[in-house]
Amino acid sequence: MSLSMHKISVPAFIRGFAVLSSLIDKAEAFAAEKKIDQAVLVNARLAPDMLPFAGQIQRASDTAKATIGRLTTIEIPKFPDEEQTLGELRERVAKTVAFLETVDQSALEGSETKEVTLSAGPLKVTLDGVEYILKFVLPNFYFHVTTAQNILRHNGVQVGKLDYLGPLS
Amino acid sequence: MSLSMHKISVPAFIRGFAVLSSLIDKAEAFAAEKKIDQAVLVNARLAPDMLPFAGQIQRASDTAKATIGRLTTIEIPKFPDEEQTLGELRERVAKTVAFLETVDQSALEGSETKEVTLSAGPLKVTLDGVEYILKFVLPNFYFHVTTAQNILRHNGVQVGKLDYLGPLS
């Protein structure tokens, strides 16, 4: 197996969304077992100025889609942030994965040197495709997957490191 | 800039440790300002079965070192988990970075196909070098950096997404 722009991004996203999907399943089972309104978990957050569980999944979805939008000529789908239930979040994950699965390896060929300009608040920087994935996309993507898991663990849902890593073989 | 086994791992670690070092600085300033014993933050955790702030930094250090140990013939330093203060954690980060800076790009050449066997509890799997970094090392490494930040934010330390991303240019 050799390295490519596709290899370091799309399969990592799809694995991450499989993890998020299993977290949603565990949250759903926990809410049912404890007779808790699902909205409590959907809206749970670790700090007042952090995104809730739903927001972590929405931003993971956007991070993955934007990577394809910025590095290829593929038109990316728009998914408005309207999810309010665990079932709707599961659907957002599934739609994102369905899109990612249409992205062929060849679509990312040559994107190593494509320039990407990021602009958000005080941040304004231009990176090449490789740096964009390694310095921005992967740290961000894993931030959201990790924080989604941390929110559930903090709320007592039984998830552990093996849930986060997902199947490795 | 092109992709290599070194490129996708060592600079990402060094950037992550710069972020952890700045988190330690912010924790120190917060403890001083609020007159809180530093040990409160060093030992803070998000759930009873999760590692505290210190443990997140120790595991980030071990994840980075083990990557070099498993993919090269370089002998890796041992750092016992004895840190009890923010200053000692800063030193652990600095020692880890000093080691990583000695790892030349050439040391990782050819490690794409090197077999790595992971064994932890129910997990037992053999991956090639590329899969090991993409499926195990990077998700794990960012898990610990993110969770360290989440612990501080949950405790009221003012850190945000730009602290997590670190300098991008």
From TrEMBL, chains A, B:
<protein>
    <submittedName>
        <fullName>DUF1993 domain-containing protein</fullName>
    </submittedName>
</protein>
<dbReference type="InterPro" id="IPR034660">
    <property type="entry name" value="DinB/YfiT-like"/>
</dbReference>
<dbReference type="Pfam" id="PF09351">
    <property type="entry name" value="DUF1993"/>
</dbReference>
<dbReference type="InterPro" id="IPR018531">
    <property type="entry name" value="DUF1993"/>
</dbReference>
